[in-house]
Design brief:
CATH architecture of the largest domain: 2-Layer Sandwich
CATH superfamily of the largest domain: CO dehydrogenase flavoprotein, C-terminal domain
Mean pLDDT: 94
Number of domains: 3
CATH class of the largest domain: Alpha Beta
Shape: globular
Largest sheet: 5 strands, mixed
Low-confidence stretches: none
Number of helices: 16
CATH topology of the largest domain: Enolase-like, domain 1
Number of strands: 20
Radius of gyration: 23 Å
Strand order of the largest sheet: 2-1-5-3-4
Structural class: alpha+beta
Length: 481
């Protein structure tokens, strides 16, 4: 194992630094250690986007991959072997503005200016990914950036005009720098009783989990980061899954998608939506691009939050989890994984190695709905998912799962029993809505009251029925897009 130093590229220059506190955030390092204050802190929880930066990683065939992330909840050691670009690194060698920055100036996209660096970095990622973005592409790219001055119109205008100028991006040069900082061994940081491990193989990862069964397993950090920034928790031992090659793979077998436990949501979601197009809208509204770029499907599942939007959809399609402890694996259905609020079936030292998602069956209708106060970048008050197979007008198989209603995400057993084997009509749906009141005892919180949640989940089921009969559009994703 190596010493407590990491190497990465920062705005075109190789940086090597000691890490004493493994939970020091990238934002703290930039602002407090390097005095690169263009990156701002707004919420310290990955919601507002003021801290957005771009991470560059090696791609395939000499290419590189760029992704916007939130610096406020990303731990510094996770940058090892990568490249980080901040707003200070966008301007050219002679100081001229990057085309994104120039477009923001020309279109008057900056008002008070606090949120502007984050918007610029999200647009920079879009600039490099898509040279002809649609309005929907732009809105999606900016879903994780909040403007306090309501200045979205000129910012969108900047996004629409930024490609009239070209930058001097050199993929080969970035790939060479990444090759220089690439690590060929496992990373281990130990300082004053605190540890951070980042192994490259699943055998080493499993061994560390067995050796430190009470360790915090870190993937994207989009939830664990808040333990530090909001709850001020001290994490003594962290085992990072983001370098484990086998947990970063997506493979397709004859029957399943096999998604590694550390695959980011930004890669996992398109693979799932390709199989189940009816999940597109819900997953498009799943957090924001910076969160999806960092957060992982395995982490969302293992965390077990009752408002995790991926689990209802995965439950109804019959997803299973492959759990690993040491060299041993076992498989469990996702709808049997949760026992109580954030209590799951994992034993000490065990982890989610991969998620198995059944491939699409042509005659099954799969859909998911999200009800929240805000359309983009918001936590669900209720999230529902359905899988329906019909034989004529009779229901051959119906499944429904709900999140946001109770302490755990689970299937609606009474509702399913009413619908299965019945005619797919309004009378059946009315009876199923009554059964939902027996399936769940909704909670009351800042997002919705218990009564409102129950009415909402019943109405969402009715909407799904109307969608399947052609009496309602299959998407609400239409305004301004």
């Amino acid at each position: 194992m190596s010493s407590a130093r990491i190497r990465f590229v920062l705005n075109g220059e190789i940086v090597e630094t000691a890490v004493d506190d493994p939970t020091r955030t990238v934002l703290q390092f930039l602002r407090e250690d390097l005095r690169l204050t263009g990156t701002k802190e707004g919420c310290a929880e990955g919601d507002c986007g003021a801290c957005t930066v771009v991470v560059v990683e090696p791609g395939s065939d000499g290419d590189v991959e760029l992704k916007a992330i939130n610096a406020c909840i990303q731990f510094l050691p996770t940058l090892d072997g990568k490249e980080l670009i901040t707003v200070e690194g966008l301007s050219g060698g002679s100081g001229e503005l990057h085309p994104v920055q120039r477009a923001m100036v020309d279109e008057h996209g900056s008002q008070c200016g606090f949120c502007t660096p984050g918007f610029v970095m999200s647009l920079f990622a879009l600039y490099r990914h898509n040279d002809k973005p649609t309005r929907r592409d732009i809105d999606d790219a900016l879903a994780g950036n909040l403007c306090r001055c309501t200045g979205y119109r000129p910012i969108i205008a900047a996004a629409q005009s930024m490609h009239t100028r070209r930058d001097d991006w050199d993929t080969a040069a970035h790939a060479r720098l990444l090759n220089e900082v690439a690590r060929d061994d496992d990373l281990a940081i130990e300082h004053q009783g605190r540890r951070f491990f980042a192994p490259g193989g699943i055998e080493a990862f499993a061994a560390l989990c067995s050796r430190y069964p009470d360790a915090t397993i870190l993937a994207g950090g989009t939830d664990i980061g808040l333990w530090v920034t909001k709850q001020h928790r001290s994490l003594d031992t962290i085992i990072y899954a983001g370098r484990v090659a086998q947990m970063l793979e997506i493979e397709t077998s004859g029957t399943h998608l096999e998604i590694g436990g550390a695959v980011p949501l930004a890669r996992a979601i398109p693979a799932i939506v390709e199989q189940y197009p009816g999940l597109d809208e819900m997953f498009r509204r799943f957090a924001s691009p910076p969160i999806r770029n960092a957060g992982t499907l395995g982490g969302n599942i293992a965390n077990g939050s009752p408002i995790g939007d991926s689990m209802p959809a995965l439950m109804v399609v019959g997803a299973t989890l492959v759990l690993q402890k040491g060299a041993d694996e076992r498989e469990i259905a996702l709808d049997e994984f949760y026992h109580d609020y954030q209590v799951n079936d994992l034993s000490p030292g065990e982890f989610v190695a991969r998620i198995r998602v059944p491939l699409r069956e042509s005659d099954a209708i799969v859909a998911s709905q999200k009800w929240s106060k805000r359309f983009d970048q918001d936590i669900s008050a209720v999230c529902t998912a359905y899988r329906l197979e019909l034989s004529g007008e009779m229901v051959r198989d119906f499944r429904m799962a709900c999140g946001g209603l109770a302490a755990t995400i689970r299937r609606a057993a009474h509702c399913e029993n009413v619908i299965n084997g019945s005619s797919w009509n309004e009378d059946t749906i009315d009876a199923a809505c009554e059964a939902l009141a027996r399936d769940f005892s909704p909670i009351t919180d800042m997002r919705a009251s218990a009564d409102m949640r129950l009415v909402a989940v019943q109405n969402l089921l009715r909407r799904f029925f109307l969608e399947t009969t052609g009496e309602a559009p299959e998407t609400v994703y239409s305004y301004g897009r």
